[in-house]
């Protein structure tokens, strides 16, 4: 193993332990929020205990790895001391039961007792582990720990009965005296470190901003990985418990192991899914699991489509955020178990449709790029065509199943509109792809191509705009008559602004720009065949042969379509930069095509 590989291996192991050490804090915070910790607090101090425990768990969670190791070493020392105390108590009780004041065992009889030998071995192992958790290397401290652990074992050899009974308390006092000393030292160290780090944190926030600080802290604490491990371990433990109880129930409380059938497995899966979204931490953990799954799906699609350096790597983050928003907006954690399962299924349906929209945004530019190439290699066209066919026919079939097996509801309307919007996008992509593919095989310039592409885009965008209005109305009905909420109101406002107002304004501006450009082009004289023959040159914009052209006031010849695109930008001649039109109408430099905006925020209705 080279030095670089050794450093990489050490960094990975350190990152794994950093994640594992932070997971228990999530369990504690989750239990406190759900009020499941077995702590005998009174009603008066209930809230105070919960707040204090939650803040302590948060404080442990954000500690640096070195300090976190100190904390868990201390906790490990406490557990070892408890084990030693339990064993000494058990052995002393056993010894006193076997002996009496008039018939005491000799030292040789005690040494021949197997429990005494086993106890010495156990205490030796506990001493080594305790010393390891403390990090002590000094012989004096190690001897002190060994003596404190083995006092009761040694006392039974020669000491009287009252000394043996007192040795147990002496061992406990010595052990926990060392623990208290360690706690004080570590507490002083943490306080000193906090006094040093808090000013540094404020200085970082003032220098780089709160966003940069949050992002760096998010990465340093490995929050997605911690939430992912928390959710998976919790689900795994519940799965083992559910399988065990199913087996006991089927065999009248007699444990006879067998493989559950398909119906039992399905019930187990449903129960796990319901339990996996019963709190905000489990929702966050499930979102992290969805994020890593969709991230890998995005990487596979990126490799399959042969695209590089795209923003589609964000599909994991987008999927996780969308799932979390849907869960919070619909109040998933506060529903009954049966209703929660239904709502989870509906949210996953909406999430799947939104992911299909995102995949379409990956496929569309790839198909447009391939169709515009003059050299057509169909082997490169098959992957994006296959993916586009998949995101067209699979949602279509799913909608068919939903309408066949589900009752009418506002949620069914929302998911149907959301899916039909996807189908319209895919059809528009196919039509544009076909036109561009035909144009690539033509030998002459296709002047009407831009018009045809504009008609397809404008039709698709108009349908999406109408669907956006429908989703807003559907969401408004749900908000006022079914289930309201602050989150839903915020998402409705965002949908109304981005997917209705902004998209409608951009579409109208594009339409007005195009209409103005068409009027200007129609005002220019069209070149006759004789003029084109006499000119005998190509269009200075596209460098294609002039089969038809418009003549500018400065006597330059251009394709009407090329000149129209130029007029979207400015009113000057492309050749001599002379003013073509004397008008005070301001021209906008916006692009013709509007960006696609997913309407997922309104597609979460009941």
From TrEMBL:
Ranges where the RING-type domain occurs: 539-577
GO biological process, one term: ERAD pathway
Location(s), subcellular: Endoplasmic reticulum membrane
Protein encoded by which gene: LOC109486681
PANTHER family: E3 UBIQUITIN-PROTEIN LIGASE RNF139 (PTHR22763:SF163), RING ZINC FINGER PROTEIN (PTHR22763)
SMART domains recorded: RING, RINGv
Ranges annotated as biased composition (Acidic residues): 590-606
UniProt membrane topology term: Multi-pass membrane protein
PROSITE patterns per the UniProt record, alphabetical: ZF_RING_2
Protein keywords: Endoplasmic reticulum, Membrane, Metal-binding, Transmembrane, Transmembrane helix, Zinc, Zinc-finger
Residue stretches spanning the membrane: 47-64, 71-88, 115-132, 144-164, 184-205, 226-247, 280-301, 313-332, 344-363, 384-403, 409-431
Name this polypeptide is given: E3 ubiquitin-protein ligase RNF139
InterPro entries in alphabetical order: HRD1_E3_ubiq-ligases, TRC8_N_dom, Znf_RING, Znf_RING-CH, Znf_RING/FYVE/PHD
GO CC terms: Derlin-1 retrotranslocation complex
Molecular-function GO terms, alphabetical: ubiquitin protein ligase activity; zinc ion binding
Region listing for Disordered, in residue ranges: 584-606
């Amino acid at each position: 193993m080279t030095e670089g590989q050794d450093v990489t291996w050490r960094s990975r192991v350190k990152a794994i332990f950093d994640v594992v050490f932070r997971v228990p804090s999530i369990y504690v915070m989750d239990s406190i929020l759900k009020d499941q910790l077995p702590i005998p607090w009174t009603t008066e101090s209930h809230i105070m205990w919960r707040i204090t425990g939650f803040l302590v768990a948060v404080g442990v969670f954000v500690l640096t790895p070195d300090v976190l190791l100190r904390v868990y070493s201390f906790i490990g020392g406490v557990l070892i001391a408890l084990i030693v105390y339990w064993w000494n108590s058990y052995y002393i009780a056993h010894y006193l039961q076997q002996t009496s004041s008039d018939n005491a065992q000799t030292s040789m009889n005690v040494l021949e007792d197997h429990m005494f030998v086993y106890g010495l071995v156990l205490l030796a192992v506990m001493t080594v582990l305790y010393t390891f958790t403390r990090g002590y290397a000094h012989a004096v401290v190690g001897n002190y720990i060994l003596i404190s652990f083995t006092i009761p074992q040694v006392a039974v050899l020669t000491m009287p009965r009252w000394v043996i009974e007192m040795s147990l308390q002496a061992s406990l006092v010595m052990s926990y005296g060392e623990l208290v000393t360690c706690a004080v030292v570590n507490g002083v160290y943490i306080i000193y470190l906090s006094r040093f780090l808090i000013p540094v944190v404020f200085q970082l926030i003032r220098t780089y901003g709160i966003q940069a600080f949050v992002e760096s802290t998010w990465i340093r604490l490995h929050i997605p990985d911690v939430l992912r491990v928390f959710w998976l371990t919790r689900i795994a433990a519940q799965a083992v418990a559910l399988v065990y109880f199913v087996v006991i129930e089927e065999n009248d409380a007699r444990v006879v192991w067998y493989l559950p059938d398909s119906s039992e497995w399905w019930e187990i899966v449903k129960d796990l899914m319901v339990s996996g979204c019963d709190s905000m931490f489990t929702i966050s953990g499930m979102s992290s699991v969805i994020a890593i799954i969709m991230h890998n799906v995005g990487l596979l699609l990126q490799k399959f489509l042969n695209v590089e350096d795209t923003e589609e790597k964000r599909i994991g983050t987008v999927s996780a955020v969308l799932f979390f928003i849907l869960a919070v907006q619909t109040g998933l954690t506060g529903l009954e178990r049966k209703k929660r399962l239904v709502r989870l299924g509906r949210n996953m349906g909406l999430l799947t449709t939104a992911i299909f929209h995102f995949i379409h945004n990956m496929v569309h530019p790839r198909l447009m790029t391939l169709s515009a190439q003059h050299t057509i290699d169909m082997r490169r066209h098959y992957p994006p065509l296959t993916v586009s066919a998949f995101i067209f026919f699979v949602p279509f079939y799913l909608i068919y199943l939903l309408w066949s097996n589900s009752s009418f509801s506002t949620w069914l309307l929302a998911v149907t509109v959301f899916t039909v919007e996807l189908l319209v996008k895919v059809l528009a992509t196919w039509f544009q792809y076909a036109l561009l593919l035909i144009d690539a095989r033509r030998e002459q310039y296709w002047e009407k191509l831009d018009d045809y592409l504009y008609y397809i885009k404008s039709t698709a965008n108009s349908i999406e705009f109408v669907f956006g209005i429908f989703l807003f109305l559907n969401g408004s009905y749900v908000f006022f008559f079914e289930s309201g909420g602050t989150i839903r109101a915020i998402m409705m406002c965002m949908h109304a602004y981005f997917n209705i107002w902004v998209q409608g304004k951009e579409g109208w501006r594009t339409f007005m720009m195009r209409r103005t450009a068409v009027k200007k082009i129609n005002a220019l004289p069209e070149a006759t065949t004789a003029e084109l023959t006499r000119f005998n040159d190509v269009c200075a914009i596209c460098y294609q042969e002039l089969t038809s052209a418009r003549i500018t006031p400065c006597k330059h010849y251009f394709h009407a379509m090329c000149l129209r695109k130029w007029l979207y930008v400015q009113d000057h001649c492309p050749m001599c930069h002379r003013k073509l039109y004397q008008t005070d109408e301001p021209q906008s430099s916006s692009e013709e095509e509007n960006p696609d905006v997913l309407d997922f925020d309104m597609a979460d209705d009941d």
